[in-house]
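Quick one:
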Amino acid sequence: MSGWTLYFPYAVAFWLFVIGCFGITQSRNLIHTILCIAVVQSSTYMLLLSIDFHAQAGAPIFGSTNPPGSASVDPILHALTLTDIVVGATVTALLLALTIQIYRRRGTIDPQRLRPMSE
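Output:
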């Protein structure tokens, strides 16, 4: 790989991160904020997968078709990406459940209209 194609996945990860952070700061709705957090989370997937990308690399299973010593990808980063996806889905589900409870108790999901609970 040469030139811009080497850094393109990093640029996409950075772009996703910036767009997600901008959405978080500009949001007037808790559901929109949660979706923007998911976009920021997806930038970490892109970053982890682009770190481990090799154009001619194969699976890390060595045998007759892929002899030992040949280029292969690191399975640890793929495992971290899968773990990141599972954790991201869990956090998103938890935040959405909390948003439902906030709406039931307060009647709004606008963060600026929410006030501290009185005793």
